[in-house]
């Protein structure tokens, strides 16, 4: 999540956690950076973010890695808030017959969320009114 714009920069979904999913998400996120961009990438303490491959990719781009302290969800408050809002606005209000249906819904939710943030930066006008 870009903490300035609120945009979900990159994400991946799979039925189970495995490193190729995280690697693909990181590749998508890095592709959006300009050559001089040096953001801090924050995550929880998941095993994926401790792997040499992940850490090496960040280091090769000159990026800073930040991880939440153990047991302190406030370190990652923006993402915790995003997930809480998504659960309240989307997950708990719907019934899903398959994992695929849930994944489609999450993609739509993220797209709509981005449009809400984008509209806010345009003074709540739709893109065609700008």
Q: For the report, how would you describe the main beta sheet? A: 2 strands, parallel
| Overall mean pLDDT | 85
The total count of strands amounts to 2
| Backbone structural class | mainly alpha
Brief summary of the model shown:
By secondary structure, the protein is mostly helical. It has helices spanning 19-31, 52-60, 77-91, 99-121; strands at residues 40-43, 64-67. Helix content is 46%, strand content 6%.
Write the layout of secondary structure elements.
Layout: H1 19-31, E1 40-43, H2 52-60, E2 64-67, H3 77-91, H4 99-121
Parallel strand pairs: 1-2
Written overview of the protein:
With 130 residues, this protein is mostly helical. The protein has a single domain (19-129), classed as 2-Layer Sandwich (Nucleotidyltransferase, domain 5). The protein is built from four helices and two strands; from the N terminus they run αβαβαα. The chain has helices at 19-31, 52-60, 77-91, 99-121; strands at 40-43, 64-67. The protein is globular, with a radius of gyration of 16 Å.
